[in-house]
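Self-study notes.
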Amino acid sequence: MTRLLVLVSIFGMSLLPAVAESAGPSPGRPNILLILGDDIGYSDLGCYGGEILTPTLDRLAAEGLRFTQFYNSSRCCPSRASLLTGLYPTQAGIGHFVGRDTGKPGYVGRLADRSVTLAEVAKSAGYSTYAVGKWHVNNPPPTQQGFDEFYGFVHGYAVDSWNPKMMVRLPEGRPTRTYKPGEYYATHAITDYALDFLNEARSQKKPWFMYMAYQAGHFPVQAPPEVTRTYLDTYRKGWDVLRAVRLERMKRLGLIADSVSLPPRSPIDLVQVARRLGSMTADGHNPPWDSLNADRREDLAHRMAVYAAMVQTMDTNIGRVVDSLREHGELDNTLILFISDNGACAEWEPFGFDLNPADYANNPPGHGINGGTPGKPNILHTGESLKTMGGPGSLFSYGSAWANLSNTPLWLYKHYAHEGGIHTPMIAHWPAGIHDRGAIRSHLGHLMDVMATLVDLTGATYPTTHQGHDILPMEGRSLRLAFENEPEQPRLLIFEHERNAALRQGPWKIVAQHIVGREGLRPGVSWELYNIADDPTEQHNLAEERPEMVKRMSDLFVEQARRTLILPKP
């Protein structure tokens, strides 16, 4: 079986078995299962060209659709705010981060009163609503924003996956599971409760909406050691070899044009590194794998092996849910969407960092880490220490060079508005509604489209007011047209996070780092211009050749930035 899965990863979807049919089509509105991965790079999944074994998601892609022009909002909580509300993150109130109210409408650090959640809207159509995993959009908690049941962590951006005390069950007083010492692992537990909630939904005989927001593969990367060991030889090859292999695999899968070349290694996140180390390489980019000594390479191979095992374990658990749907005859009329919240995480430098255990030690239930000491860079694990990496008490990240691999062949990472930060894999599976199975869609999409899709497919009512507050209109578009492969309509998308910004219109994109100031665009900072259809890796800046287009799109960015609360209105 292992050799078969490896062949699938290498040669694409042709060897994948069809997802078993459910008992038959279920007439009427679909159930909706929305799965969100955390910090998973564009090409990590097997069906997107990665060497990580993801047979469940690969099978869903083989029986559904893969999108190649789907976008997120560059970081965990802005993306979640946009996904949950169908708005741009600034319109939803979380343009930067939770809990940090800047006094500006787009950056209040919580979901704004001018928004409603997917669950609140689904309820208008008579759906039961459930959520598991990572919330990360601040108070009120999920069960006060439309969800009937919840298990996961409400506050913070990360948890120790081996520590059950970091999770909470809501509403208070609901039955909870118990785990034997050493048995608990967060991804397993999140799925256990998802299956419990599905059983509850079946007893109610109502359609349901479930939001499964896994913490995999956010740091600290942690995974069962028996899975980690299977990846060590793969990652001992290093990121340079594997980036080239991924690109060729993506070409064979039809995900990217044969003409695309592998770009140079992406720059290190120099703003963050400067605070700790200064630049680690002469050119400021991630170093060549072969330039590192043997001990450092072994440490890094273990870091990436744990990350890969974490993603594979998530896929295994998604398989448990898919199996349950199949067994109960629900798979055919359940829309399953899989998305990542942002590009791969480069925090903060090529060798990764190890976290301070005190930041995770005594948090109350439902509270992951949310700030605190960012960790010690450059720790080198050797000898016996290597054997414990990813297990209980082990808290680390995998670093910017592996993140560069995860985003192959895209430029930069999470936090940025370049493609490596905002470009996400997206899989849609719905046998009753998607008939062009195994196809690839290049329709321009954004995770805020999930709201419009839910309204379209369920017959839900999107409100104009809610609890005495005026609600902004949806920004997204229903994915139904993409499911049916209807011609794509012209579209404009705007991005901003940590003053990094972009505007996408058709194939054209302007993008820059640190270009947005408090009241407008910062003087002296130049936009880059790319034709993404021809140059998806953003290596050929056309700004000097097309100054009139840069000016037009820059003016359009400011107009849209004021409309979407990135910038104050004049």
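Second protein, same conventions, sequence then structure:
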Amino acid sequence: MNKINEKTLKDLEFFTVLDQIAARCITELGKENALKIVPLDTKELVLIHLKQTSEFVASFTNENRIPNHGFDAINQELKLLTIENATIEISGFRKIGNICTTINVLKKFFKKFKEYYPLLFDASEEVELNLEIPNHINSVVDRFGEIKDNASDNLRGIRQEINVVKGKINQSFSRALTTYNSSEFLDEIRESVVDNRRVLAVKAMYRKKVKGSVMGTSKTGSIVYIEPEATLQFSRQLNNLEFEEREEIQRILKELTAHIQPFTPELALYQGFLAHIDITAAKAKYALEMDAIMPEVSENKELFLRDAYHPLLYLTNKRKKEKTYPQTISLHPENRIIVISGPNAGGKSITLKTLGILQVMLQSGLLIPVHERSKVCLFDRILTDIGDNQSIENHLSTYSYRLKNMNYFLRKCDENTMFLIDEFGTGSDPELGGALAEIFLEVFYERGSYGVITTHYSNLKLLANELPHATNANMLFDSKTLEPTYQLVLGQAGSSFTFEVAQKNGIPYSLINRAKKKIERGKVRFDATIAKLQKERSSMAKTGDKLKKVESKARDEAQRLEELNGKVKSKLENYQELYDSSQRMIYLGNKVNDAALKYFQDKKKRPLVSELLRIVETENSKRKKKSAQQVKIEKIKKAKVAQEVIKKVEVIREEKKVEKKKKIVQEKNKPAVALKIGDRVRMVDGKAVGSIDKLEKKKAVVNYGIFTTNVNVDQLELVERKK
């Protein structure tokens, strides 16, 4: 599947993406390998890499974080292991031991959490758990990078002898120091260290009086550094022992190297696995920064990128805190080729590059910044012709180079190819170059290729309109300000707004009119028609958005009213049932009351009992026989309705109480009216009107004609003054 050439990757700035991924690797080998990422050969490999990266992204947000995978490269050590009788240094063994330990930790982790990371677990199963190598290295090298004393019996014996000799050197030196210091042969500093040996700091005038080997002098020559004769013999012995120690260490390392040599292929696999994990982690970090995901990978040749971002542009704008405009683009068997037209600086090229870079990234196992409902397919080839490809070395003009490129396209294009061409047909005479470009496009179409091109040529726009499985598209511009909106719209060609843009940039209107006269009237009218249609489309799109919002609000309101109507109907039905039940109870109560009155008058039990039985039988004949469960449900239902009614009544009563209190408060707040005998008054919450017969302190006797009553003056309000 991987037939994507280096020129395509360069045109789409794929290597810049790789630089950004390499910068997120934590190992040198990971960085080197990240720069070598290329589109993968099979769909199976693409899916594996995408899913592994998705699993790593998930590890950043859950509690089961993947352990550290850092390591130091062992390329040099692997080379030495292939050479007979070679010896690896201690630092090399430490790196090998660390790699083995890291592998073992990761294998145990992925085995424990294989339900969370199934693809990464499968990858870890390709390397075997090996405890022998780290255990053997740890038995020889300690955690400080030194050879252990018990690495061999001979080494232990040598180091014991070295310690004894060092003790003797210190003792003999201390005696000499004491002796010569008491004789005042030594300088104030008394001693120093030269070539890792303790020496006496002897005054120059007494150097012949001190027996030993001269090791050097001070810069001024006032001090001579002498190793005492008593320690010389032990120093020579120490030198011999240290030489033997080095020889033994070299032998141990050589033996350890030979022991590890059979595991050379295994160690190479270990390093390769950790480098792969490092690259996968870097891909995941990169994806996390731009909210990239794994879209659905379709079996059919259909591609739908919704809200797609160019990764380089998105991250650059993110750092600058600027907005990035997403693009939505679709290619499928019914719409294989898109011809994008419109003015320059409107976003045509960036749309083209966004599609290309995302497709290459996906086929290289990288997650892409698109909406989760996007759908992609894979292409065998991706061919690009983007930018000014003038070649000075080959003495080719831009147009010559582009023709050479088109020749390559014609040889390679098939139904599994996607082509991306920027400014198709430019570089030559507009009419002749446009005609040739039209023929090229027809060939690409006939071969079933998929692709996107950008152009200003009218004949290509017309061709896209005529071909059944091709379509025009344009980048929307604000018709008033002529500023780009960076939004791709399918179905209609775009005007270049040549004269409008020129006028906006200050070109005199008289010159623009002269320019219009230089070209065919039909072309001006055609371009003007396209521009007008584009403006109308933009206006209709805005109107459509407004109508959609209004429709949505109306739909929500209708739904709300329908729900409210349903609730009202249900309550009315419940109230009707309750009313009917109450009326029946009143009717039965009247019947029973009549029977009771008759019995009260004649004291005859038989007619009373027969009347009651008749009432009961009449009521039972109206009832349908119901199960105990149905009766229970009806009782509960009636009880609920009754409770609702009681609650409503209580609410109304509470409201009336509140209103009453408000009235009382208002009356209290009213200025007090001085009442006199004979005034006509009434109670604050009453209707009957009376006259005051007597006033005594805060009490009044009110005469209502039939009766009189004592009332507090505060509870009265004036109706009419005494005339």
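Instructor comment on the second fold: Residues 390-395 have pLDDT under 50 and may be disordered.
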